[in-house]
């Protein structure tokens, strides 16, 4: 479980406090990971297989002699078919072994380039925003705080009425307040701190109006 019921209640209360004096509506969204990165694992497996073939092509005599010793062969006459069979076996073995190794998510994430992780987190955050907040409030004042735990990355995406008044860099303090505790494993504390900062920005950008009411749920959405 990403959050206990008590932690979910704490975050919902923090959302309510942040929205108290603003027309803004905040939606916290938390996911274990934004993408399985299966394509990255496949790409690494293919790369390792080609690397093995390159090594075989660079020093064929060495590897053929090694196979002979391992298999206990003596003065074997290698045919073209045997060479191709060896290359196919090596490539298949390396590909399968690397693909199996990369089923370990921590390693797969470590081998995924940062720009790819950043792009996948952003794309998933946009999807979460479109499904949970975009155009779902009367004044288009929804804001999504999206947190992707495996990548240790977060995004703040605001609907048009807020985005027109708040520069993206203004959310920096909220992001810093979140990521500090998050790196230490304190997700709920980081969320509370970030929500307080988001509320402060929204009070300036979109103050509370007469007859405002809560249009979006306060509790976190767990994907």
Automatic annotation (TrEMBL):
Task: Give the residue spans that cross the bilayer.
Answer: 41-63, 83-102
Residues of the TPM domain: 129-200
The protein's UniProt keywords, in alphabetical order, are:
Membrane, Transmembrane, Transmembrane helix
Pfam families per the UniProt record, alphabetical: TPM_phosphatase
Query: By its UniProt entry, which Gene3D superfamilies does this protein fall under?
Result: 3.10.310.50
Q: Which PANTHER family match?
A: BLL7265 PROTEIN, UPF0603 PROTEIN YGCG
Q: What is this protein called?
A: Membrane protein
The scientific name of the source species is: Novosphingobium capsulatum
